[in-house]
């Protein structure tokens, strides 16, 4: 049996989404928008949120795992990354030969280890992926059909994967509006520790520092757009970020250590009132941030609206 995906018109006869929240729900909506999916079946841990997903038209039905997997074309794991082993372990006995399994997890090294352990030889069917798009709100109510439009998706194919399966996963994301890139998992994890995982950790820390102060109420009442913009992502799912920080801890610890050194350097310049050094440092960062914003605007991946 093959996955049954019609490659010319690209239609996925049966898509199974495990974890129907922001990311899985948005993928289902994007594929429905493109007319690229027959039936979407949701699997989850909360009956209430699955019922809500049906009500919103994000999935067509929910089903227990074993039933959902029957004749599934593509299965997408969209639960927090620490759930990967348990989900794949439960899925393995029911996984049919032609079904392609993929994921949307924010970390890749730990997900791949979990997949190899849980799936054994069937890991050939697992194509790791990560959409670089999201929001600070979670759950199926936050799902959007255009979440992936123009955004990047990183694929970290395994040596074991069959090229047509990798192409099918790539096509799925393209049809959902994204632009795909392939890179090794180690590079992925090092990169996103720097540009996603550390920034989230810092945003949580910044909010915690203000909230823990005795005069936190007053501080929060007067906080302006600077605080708002630097801390938007601190409203993100604590469970998801717990799993990401632990799942990618080696690369994240490297980034934390480097950041501590940068902070120590800045602290010294402030202690010494070294305005020249501070201005030089800020100028480099400011120029780099402007250049990044301009580059983002000129490539296929549009920045968020407030960036333009
Ligand atoms: N939020 C983002 O910005 C973002 C971006 C890219 C990738 N991701 C990744 O996507 C995944 C999902 O994130 P999200 O933002 O959609 O989270 P979410 O909280 O909106 O959705 C996760 C869903 O998974 C369900 N779930 C949890 N454990 C489960 C289990 N054992 N079995 C089945 N369902 C289970 C939850 O009930 C929930 O419905 C995570 O791995 C995350 O790292 C998130
Ligand atoms: O826009 C946001 O809220 C996000 O944090 C999205 C974001 C990120 O850019 O860091 C978060 C986690 C991901 O795995 C991918 C994207």
The gist of it:
This protein is an alpha/beta fold. The chain is built from twelve helices and nine strands. It folds into two domains: 12-183, Rossmann fold; 188-300, 6-phosphogluconate dehydrogenase C-terminal like domain (6-phosphogluconate dehydrogenase C-terminal fold, Orthogonal Bundle), CATH 1.10.3660.
Strand content: 5-15%
Query: If strands are numbered along the chain, what order do they take across the biggest sheet?
Result: 3-2-1-4-5-6
By CATH reckoning, the class of the largest domain would read: Alpha Beta
Could you say how many structural domains there are in total? Answer: 2
State the separation between the terminal residues, measured CA to CA: 48 Å
Low-confidence stretches: 302-308
Assembly annotation: single chain
If classified by CATH, what would the architecture of the largest domain be?
Answer: 3-Layer(aba) Sandwich
Protein name: Prephenate dehydrogenase/arogenate dehydrogenase family protein
Organism: Imbroritus primus
């Amino acid at each position: 049996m093959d996955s049954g995906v019609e490659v010319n018109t690209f239609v996925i006869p049966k898509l199974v989404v495990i974890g129907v929240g922001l990311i899985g729900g948005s993928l289902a909506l994007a594929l429905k928008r493109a007319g690229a999916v027959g039936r979407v079946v949701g699997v989850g841990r909360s009956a209430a949120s699955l019922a809500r997903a049906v009500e919103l038209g994000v999935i067509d039905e929910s089903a227990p795992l074993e039933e959902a997997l029957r004749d599934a074309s593509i299965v997408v794991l969209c639960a927090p990354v620490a759930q990967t082993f348990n989900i794949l372990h439960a899925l393995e006995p029911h996984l049919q030969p032609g079904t392609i399994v993929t994921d949307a997890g924010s970390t890749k090294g730990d997900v791949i280890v979990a997949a190899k352990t849980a799936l054994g030889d069937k890991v050939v069917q697992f194509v790791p992926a990560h959409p670089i798009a999201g929001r600070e709100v979670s759950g199926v109510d936050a799902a959007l059909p255009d979440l992936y439009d123009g955004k990047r998706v990183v694929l970290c194919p395994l040596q074991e994967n069959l090229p047509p399966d990798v192409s099918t996963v790539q096509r799925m994301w393209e049809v959902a509006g994204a632009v795909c890139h392939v890179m090794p998992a180690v590079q992925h994890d090092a990169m996103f520790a720097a540009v996603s995982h550390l920034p989230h950790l810092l945003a949580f820390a910044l909010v915690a520092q203000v909230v823990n102060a005795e005069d936190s109420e007053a501080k929060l009442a007067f906080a302006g757009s600077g605080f708002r913009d630097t801390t938007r992502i601190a409203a993100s799912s604590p469970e998801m970020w717990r799993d990401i920080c632990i799942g990618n801890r080696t690369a994240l610890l490297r980034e934390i250590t480097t950041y501590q050194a940068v902070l120590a350097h800045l602290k010294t310049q402030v202690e010494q009132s070294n305005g020249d050094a501070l201005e030089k440092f800020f100028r480099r960062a400011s120029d780099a941030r402007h250049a990044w914003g301009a580059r983002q605007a000129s490539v296929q991946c549009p920045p968020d609206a407030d960036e333009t």
